[in-house]
């Protein structure tokens, strides 16, 4: 039998940084800051395992020896003490297996791959709104396809996009639970989709103005207000609403506007060549600048995209601001010979597969500079 009880209670506090063997597999690991950790070394199924038993600030020498004896006994019974401890913890705290808890754990695990670490809340939103209010307190191991079907059914046809996101993200949460070792039905989401059936809702695209009619609308934006100037720049750059509204002058260098990755939907830096007309519009809007933002709100923040929508609604238009991206893309296809990859890059769309993108290391800035000048000439009426 291995010698044990080699360390005294006084030594636990006084020993310098290092590793000290108390015997029978129990070790004290002292840190430079004076703290320390109890570690039990075991051999389970022929493998060396190390099991943390707690810090010296919370676990005394006597308690560490008692814990070590308990887990050594379990190892002699052919059980893995680490896995057994995890199982016992899960059984002791069943509420920790609730869908709500596991969902937030899954979100934390995915944050690094989400835009701005998921700060906008878009990943969690479908679950927070449509799933967790009904199933949040239910242990995830008890959730089956009928629970999921009954929860998603009210929005399956009426809010198809939200329903699709909610059920797909629920599937990710279920996989996370399985990775934790919980006994969940990984087929529950697919079974629920089968019970829900095919969505009857048809996708409605955002109404856009035909590219032939954009010049008349653009040239009517003449009052010099922050709303109309920002809408003009939206049209000229074919950018997204949030990109224009949050434009900061620090992002502009000469005739190139560089949007950082954290502001882009695809999470990649995007350069927009600014036409002469766009630069004139920016210069005209300079008196409105506040703290670097070209289009600030009335009191705080930045201008709302609802302002643009109201301009178009008041004129009886069905088209909406985001639709100008479609107007631009259709113009590229019908009125120019612009290569597809250049037009798609102008819209900050990801073009081609991962391998193709790895070899195509260009954003076609020069070609897009010429393209945006032609688009500006079109909308400002300089060409037919």
UniProtKB/TrEMBL annotation:
Q: Which UniProt keywords apply?
A: DNA integration, DNA recombination, DNA-binding
Which superkingdom heads the taxonomic lineage of this protein's source? Bacteria
Q: Which residues form the Tyr recombinase domain?
A: 204-372
Any one GO molecular function term: DNA binding
Q: Answer yes or no on keyword Protein transport.
A: no
Q: InterPro entries annotated for this entry?
A: DNA_brk_join_enz, Integrase-like_cat_sf, Integrase_catalytic, Integrase_DNA-bd_sf, Integrase_DNA_bind_dom, Integrase_recombinase_N, Phage_int_M, Phage_Integrase
Entries under Pfam families matching the protein: Arm-DNA-bind_3, Phage_int_M, Phage_integrase
Oxidoreductase listed as a keyword = no
Q: Which residues cross the membrane?
A: none
**Which region is the signal sequence?**
none
**Which example biological process does GO assign this protein?**
DNA recombination
Sequence similarity: Belongs to the 'phage' integrase family.
Official protein name in the record: Integrase
Q: Which species?
A: Actibacterium pelagium
């Amino acid at each position: 039998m291995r010698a044990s009880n080699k360390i005294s209670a006084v030594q636990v506090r006084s020993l310098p940084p290092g590793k000290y063997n108390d015997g029978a597999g129990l070790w004290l690991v002292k840190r430079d800051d004076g703290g320390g950790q109890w570690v039990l070394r075991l051999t389970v199924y022929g493998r060396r395992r190390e099991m943390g038993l707690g810090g010296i600030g919370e676990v005394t020498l006597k308690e560490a020896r008692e814990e070590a004896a308990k887990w050594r006994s379990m190892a002699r019974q052919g059980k893995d003490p680490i896995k057994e401890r995890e199982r016992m913890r899960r059984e002791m705290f069943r509420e920790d297996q609730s869908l709500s808890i596991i969902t937030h754990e899954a979100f934390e695990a995915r944050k690094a791959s989400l835009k701005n670490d998921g700060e906008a809340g878009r990943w969690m939103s479908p679950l927070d709104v449509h799933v967790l209010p009904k199933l949040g307190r239910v242990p995830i191991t008890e959730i089956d396809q009928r629970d999921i079907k009954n929860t998603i059914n009210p929005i399956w046809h009426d809010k198809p996009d939200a329903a699709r996101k909610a059920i797909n993200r629920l599937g990710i949460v279920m996989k996370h639970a399985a990775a934790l070792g919980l006994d969940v039905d990984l087929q529950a989401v697919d079974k629920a989709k089968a019970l829900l059936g095919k969505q009857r809702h048809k996708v409605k695209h955002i109404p856009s103005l035909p590219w032939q009619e954009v010049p008349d609308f653009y040239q009517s934006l003449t009052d010099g207000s922050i709303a109309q100037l920002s809408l003009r720049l939206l049209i000229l750059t074919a950018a997204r609403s949030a990109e224009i509204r949050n434009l900061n002058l620090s992002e502009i260098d000469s005739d190139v506007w560089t949007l950082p990755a954290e502001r882009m939907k695809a999470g990649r830096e995007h350069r927009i060549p600014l036409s002469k007309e766009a630069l004139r519009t920016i210069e005209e809007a300079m008196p409105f600048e506040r703290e670097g933002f070209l289009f600030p709100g009335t009191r705080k923040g930045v201008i709302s995209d609802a302002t643009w929508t109201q301009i178009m609604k008041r004129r009886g238009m069905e088209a909406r601001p985001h639709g100008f991206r479609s107007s631009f893309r259709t113009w590229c296809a019908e009125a120019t010979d612009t290569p597809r990859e250049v037009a798609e890059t102008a819209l900050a769309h990801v073009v081609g597969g991962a391998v193709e993108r790895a070899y195509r290391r260009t954003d076609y800035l020069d070609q897009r500079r010429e393209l945006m000048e032609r688009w500006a000439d079109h909308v400002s009426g300089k060409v037919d």
